[in-house]
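Hypothesis: this fold can be encoded by more than one sequence.
Test: take the C-alpha cells below, design a sequence, compare later.
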C-alpha cells in the first residue's frame, strides 16, 4: 500500500504542474506554455496602462524594448555579471510569445480594453499574479542561485553571490525600469528608488533567495538544527513564499493607494473651506486630481510601472511670490492701455457726491491686513448681500469735489461707470465668529480695488495738472477726441 503524499510532495506537484502546463493549438503542432502567455499579457498590459494617453508617442521598437527589459531584466543582468550568454537568446518560444502579445496589445485598442476588463475581476488578477510569481521564483532559483554553483569561475560555496544573483533575478527588471524611466515616452537616467528604499519585490526576492540558500546548504542546516530540504522541494516552497509575498504586496499597495486617495479628498475639502478670492495661496490640487488610482488593479508588475510613473510626474507649482509678481506685472501692464471708447449713449447726470463718494480703495498703495471670514466668498452671490466699504482716504467729500471740479460732466460719468464696475464683487459675512487675517501685498481687497486705487491716483494727478495749466488751456482741450484721457 502506497503511503499518502506528504505536504512537500503536494506542493511540488502543484507548483511544477502549473509551471509545465501547456495548451495545444488546434490544427498545429505547437504547444504554448500557459504561464508564459499569462506573464507576457501581464507585462504588456502593465506597460500600456503605465503609458496612459501617451502610448501614441512611443515608437514600436521603443515599447518592445521596454517590455523585454521588464520581462527579462533580472536574468539578463546576472548573465552579464557572470559573463554568460543572455537567456532570451536561447529560446525562440520566448520571442514568439512576447512579440505577438506586444503587437496585439498596441495595435488593437479592443485587445487592451478586453484585458483591462479581465483585470477588473479580482480572481483573474490573482491568476496573473500567480503566474508571475511562479515563473519569477523558478528563474531566481534555477538561473540566479543555482547558476552561481554551476559557473566554474564561482562555485557552490559563494553564498553571497547566490543571494545577490537570486535577488537581482527577482527584481532586476523593475530596477532598470526605474533607473531609465522606461515607462515614460522620453527616457532619462536617474538614481533608482530601490537604492533608497527597498520595494516589496526586492524584500521578497531577497528573503526567498536567502531561504533557498539556507534550506539547501548542509552547514547552515546543521548550525540552525534544521532538516535539509531537497532542492526540488525548496524550489516549490520558494515559489509559495514568493507568491504569498507578492499577493501581500499587491494588497498593501492597494490599501496605501486607498488611504492616500482618502487623505487627498480630505485635504481638498479642507482647502475648499479655506480658499476664497482673497486667498492668494496656490493649491496643489490640480496636480493631485490628475492622478487616477486604480485601486482594483494592483498586481506587483503593474505597481513597478505605476510607482515609477507617479514619481516622475512632477509639475512646477506656482509659488506665492511668483503669483504676486505676476499680479504686479499685470497691474503695471494695464497702465499702458486706455479705457475703452464709451458708447454714444445718453448718460444720466448724477450728483458728484454719490458718484465718487463710495470708493472702496481710495487710499494710496499701502499695506494693511484684510479681514476675511473663514468661508467668505468674494464673488457676488446676490445683489442683496453686497455691502460697500466707504472710503477713508480723503478727509471730506468736499475735498474730493474740489478735485473733480476740473473734469467735465462726461468725464465724471465715465469715472462713475468705471467705479461702479470695481465695487460689485465685495461680500462680507457677519455670521462667523472665527476670523482669519490675510496680509495681501499692496493691501488690496481684490484685484479691482488695485485698479481702482490706480484710477484714483491718476485722477488726482490729472486734476492737479489741469488746475496748474487752466489759464493756458481752453475748455475744449479737456477732452481728446471726445473721450477722457485717463490711462489705467
Amino acid at each position: 500500500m502506497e503511503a499518502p503524499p506528504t505536504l512537500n510532495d503536494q506542493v511540488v506537484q502543484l507548483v511544477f504542474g502549473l509551471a509545465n502546463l501547456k495548451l495545444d493549438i488546434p490544427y498545429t503542432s505547437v504547444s504554448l506554455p500557459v504561464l508564459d502567455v499569462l506573464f507576457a499579457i501581464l507585462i504588456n498590459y502593465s506597460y500600456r496602462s503605465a503609458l496612459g494617453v501617451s502610448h501614441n508617442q512611443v515608437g514600436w521598437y521603443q515599447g518592445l524594448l521596454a517590455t523585454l527589459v521588464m520581462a527579462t531584466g533580472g536574468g539578463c543582468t546576472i548573465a552579464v555579471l557572470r559573463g554568460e550568454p543572455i537567456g532570451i537568446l536561447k529560446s525562440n518560444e520566448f520571442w514568439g510569445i512576447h512579440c505577438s502579445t506586444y503587437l496585439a496589445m498596441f495595435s488593437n485598442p479592443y485587445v487592451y480594453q478586453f484585458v483591462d476588463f479581465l483585470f477588473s475581476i479580482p480572481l483573474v488578477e490573482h491568476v496573473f499574479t500567480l503566474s508571475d510569481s511562479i515563473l519569477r521564483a523558478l528563474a531566481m532559483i534555477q538561473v540566479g542561485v543555482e547558476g552561481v554553483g554551476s559557473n566554474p569561475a564561482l562555485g557552490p560555496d559563494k553564498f553571497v553571490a547566490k543571494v545577490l544573483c537570486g535577488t537581482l533575478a527577482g527584481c532586476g527588471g523593475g530596477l532598470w525600469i526605474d533607473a531609465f524611466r522606461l515607462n515614460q515616452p522620453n527616457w532619462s537616467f536617474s538614481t533608482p528608488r530601490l537604492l533608497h528604499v527597498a520595494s516589496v519585490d526586492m524584500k521578497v526576492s531577497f528573503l526567498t533567495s536567502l531561504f533557498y540558500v539556507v534550506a539547501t546548504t548542509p552547514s547552515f542546516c546543521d548550525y540552525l538544527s534544521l532538516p535539509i530540504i531537497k532542492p526540488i522541494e525548496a524550489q516549490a516552497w520558494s515559489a509559495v513564499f514568493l507568491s504569498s509575498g507578492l499577493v501581500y504586496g499587491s494588497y498593501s499597495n492597494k490599501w496605501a493607494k486607498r488611504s492616500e486617495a482618502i487623505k487627498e479628498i480630505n485635504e481638498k475639502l479642507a482647502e475648499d473651506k479655506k480658499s476664497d478670492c482673497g486667498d492668494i495661496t496656490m493649491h496643489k490640487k490640480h496636480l493631485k486630481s490628475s492622478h487616477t488610482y486604480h485601486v482594483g488593479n494592483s498586481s506587483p508588475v503593474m505597481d513597478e510601472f505605476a510607482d515609477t510613473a507617479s514619481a516622475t510626474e512632477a509639475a512646477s507649482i506656482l509659488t506665492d511670490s511668483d503669483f504676486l509678481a505676476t499680479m504686479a506685472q499685470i497691474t503695471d501692464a494695464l497702465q499702458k492701455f486706455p479705457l475703452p471708447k464709451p458708447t454714444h449713449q445718453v448718460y444720466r447726470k448724477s450728483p458728484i457726491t454719490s458718484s465718487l463718494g463710495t470708493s472702496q480703495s481710495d487710499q494710496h498703495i499701502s499695506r494693511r491686513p484684510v479681514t476675511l471670514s473663514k468661508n467668505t466668498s468674494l464673488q457676488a452671490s446676490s445683489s442683496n448681500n453686497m455691502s460697500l466699504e466707504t472710503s477713508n482716504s480723503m478727509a471730506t467729500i468736499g475735498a474730493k469735489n474740489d478735485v473733480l471740479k476740473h473734469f467735465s460732466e462726461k468725464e465724471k460719468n465715465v469715472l462713475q461707470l468705471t467705479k461702479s464696475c470695481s465695487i460689485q464683487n465685495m461680500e462680507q459675512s457677519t455670521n462667523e465668529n472665527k476670523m482669519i487675517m490675510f496680509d495681501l501685498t499692496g493691501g488690496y481687497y481684490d484685484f479691482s480695488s488695485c485698479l481702482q486705487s490706480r484710477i484714483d491716483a491718476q485722477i488726482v494727478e490729472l486734476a492737479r495738472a489741469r488746475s496748474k495749466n487752466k489759464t493756458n488751456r481752453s475748455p475744449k482741450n479737456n477732452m481728446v477726441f471726445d473721450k477722457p484721457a485717463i490711462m489705467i
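The radius of gyration is 37 Å. The beta strands are 22-24, 31-33, 370-373, 435-438.
Hypothesis status: open.
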